[in-house]
Design a protein that fits this description.
alpha/beta, Glycerol-3-phosphate (1)-acyltransferase, seven-stranded mixed beta sheet, two-stranded antiparallel ribbon, 12 helices, about 50% helix, globular
Amino acid sequence: MTALTARLLYALAALVGRLPWPVLRRLGDALAWLGVRAGTRESEVTLRNLELAYPELLPGQREEWRRDVLRSTALQTLETLRLWTRPHAENLALIGEIHGEALFDDALAAGRGLIVAAPHFGNWELLNQWLAAKTPLAILYKPPESAVGEAFLRLVRADADADRITQVRAEGAGVRQLYKRLQGGGVVGILPDQQPKGGDGEFAPFFGVQALTMTLLGRLAGRSGATVLFAWCERLGPGAYALRIEAASPGIDSADPLVATTALNADVERIARRDPAQYQWTYKRYKARPPGSGESHPYADLERR
């Protein structure tokens, strides 16, 4: 039953994915407008995050940015349904610019292992497909809460290069698997800006606000000696992307978790500031607060609604 439901969801995603790019863009605009009007969770969380990360904005500017974030988020979701249900070779033709590919090729050739840090910016699913076309890799992911959701996720990430992508659950056994891959000179992809579970993170500044930040990336890099690169697919327009690869900042592999997480957040922040609308501001990034701070999480009033 789980597999059947996942396939039905895939068929629905494929129907949406067949819509022309201009239609997807208009649909994304409509969903964003509805989100603001209805005061959805995503809309209210976005506004709260913008208040925290960009306190210098005037109220009118912040409202405009909120609408831009919601448009971009809706479009990213619709784009992903298309990317998931079209041949990867067809999708990769949408990448009109590639910057920093030599950094990636050099890191592969060095054979010391490579960690690709992919923030929630632009379209990270298209990035996954580009990486898989270049080399086999393991992707760390947080499994959905439902069995149907996980079955659907595994289904949509399958393609002609499915044997080149190993999906690794974010848990103890998975982390050991990533370390072994890096020791063997392999490639690992990590989304570095999700709030980790308690005990697996360090508080470090992110847009000037303390945010619980994963220490896993720094530990893997420090223990394995792997190169760390940041990569993202930036939207240039409907159906047009630029893929960018940059070296991580010094200190990201430090044995001091505060140094490593501060460097990590600085890199993610730098990327997010390129185009705030393309960053995932709908996520409750600041929910955990530093112990002893006396702070309640900034979304508490939203959850009581």
